[in-house]
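Dear colleague,

Thank you for sharing your sequence with our group. We've completed the structure prediction you requested, and as agreed, I am returning the results in plain text so they can be pasted directly into your records. Please verify that the sequence below matches your submission; if there's any discrepancy, let me know and we will rerun it promptly.
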Amino acid sequence: VAGLDARLSGSTQAGELRLEVGDRASPRAGRDETKPGPSRSGTSAPLRLDFGTLFETAMSFDTARGTVSWKRKAAPDGRVAMHLAARDMEAGNADALAQFSGTWDRERAGPGVANFSGTLLRADATAVHRYLPTTIDAATRHYLRDAIGAGDARNGRFTVKGDLAHFPFANDQHGVFEIAAPVTGGVFTFDSHWPRAEAIATELVFRGSGMSGHVTSAAIGGIPIANTDVKIADMAATPAVLDIKGGANGALDDFLRFVATTPVNGWLDGFLGAAHGTGNARLAMSLTMPLDDAT
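Please find the predicted structure tokens below.
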């Protein structure tokens, strides 16, 4: 821990810590408005938390406010039980701003048991990879880093509940980990050889070790897309597998121009390069791609 600015009262048995790092952040602040570094008052440095090997890098927060109380009790067998309660918490940086409350308990060796829930006021979708634990395969984290080009999440919700030794609680075993938020303005390049998806509106959900999104609207190569499901069932798998299923309705000529810009035209020796058509058609999409092969 570095950059801690707080008021502390109590003893080794019980007490309270009031965090006051940075100014109270605006829910509308984003990457251009909330830069890493000192708060606007210039009175405090960012709070830096290093979770060891759990995450790829340490995390810094320009805003960290709220109250944490603790109780510590020694058992006759020498074990020490710890209870932390966090209330009215707010933490934020250029990537995200969240408000939450909850508890953490530990009665034996291990990372303890968490029960936290809160609201994700804002988040930059391009930063998702930085907040995924290292239990998620590196190829998957790096794929999401490169694939997500934009996205603005607002008014989401999150829950972390269970024994953290089993985090992120795959298949809801031993606990629940969920982040769900509506995302607008998304850009996603699922493969460098294919046109990217733009203007994505979706409900993005991380639950356990999986990720899913139901796309209500988007455009790929100028083709409007709707009712499309994107899923990585198990991001901790080696390799993780991306599944996309959906489709679009529109003019046949538009679909032919779109397909001509994809690898499909190469597979057909350029057959679609000069193809044209009239009338309406439906384009069905189904893609299954192991992420260790993604380029």
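Summary note from our side: The longest strand covers residues 148-163.

Kind regards,
the structure core
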